[in-house]
Amino acid sequence: MSGRERVLGRVRRALADVPREEVPYEQAVPRGYLREHGGRSVAETVELLAENLADYRALVHRCTDTGLPSLIAGLLRRHGSASVVVPPGLDPGWLAETEVTRVADTADGTPRALDGVDSVVTGCAVAVAETGTIVLDGSPDQGRRRITLVPDHHICVVRVPGQVVASVPQALGRLDPARPLTWISGPSATSDIELDRVEGVHGPRTLEVVLVTVR
Description:
It is built from six helices and twelve strands. It is an alpha/beta fold. It has a single domain (42-213), classed as Rossmann fold, CATH 3.40.50. The strands form three sheets. It has a six-stranded parallel beta sheet, sandwiched between helices. Strands 8-5-6-9 form a four-stranded mixed beta sheet. β10 and β11 (197-199) form a beta hairpin.
């Protein structure tokens, strides 16, 4: 029996005597909190996202969908990348103008192999303006969670305005809680007791977010 099966078994036993007519948990607690702070326009929400991403030390870029391939090629070139991890569902046109070596996101890939790859390019599930957070959910254009944690350089493409929401409650309404969700607010960083900041400890040292206006 796996650890997962043991935990689920304990949950089932704990809930065995709960009456069927009892109010479900998600309905038992009133949640009257604001779903958004302020009445921003779509353009203002996107601007807030860009500001908060930059505040978390992410590098923010903007372009239209037609300019995306050349922008990604330029970012990989400036980073000195010779290889890039490619999720299985990534639009091939995004990398049409770069000659770097593509590394497929496969089930048998190892952390050691990923550590030798320079960059990763992904899409996202949703981006939260108020917190400057990008959420990945393992969709085909994002790949397995590990490909965005091991390589040192992550380029994440956010479609504007369709993938941008104002708040966390709005983001949760779009996400499937059964999927492997990764919430990213800036590049990976930590601080020691003297508050010396170190980046790249448990994720990419450099996060570049491309806000793509889809026309």
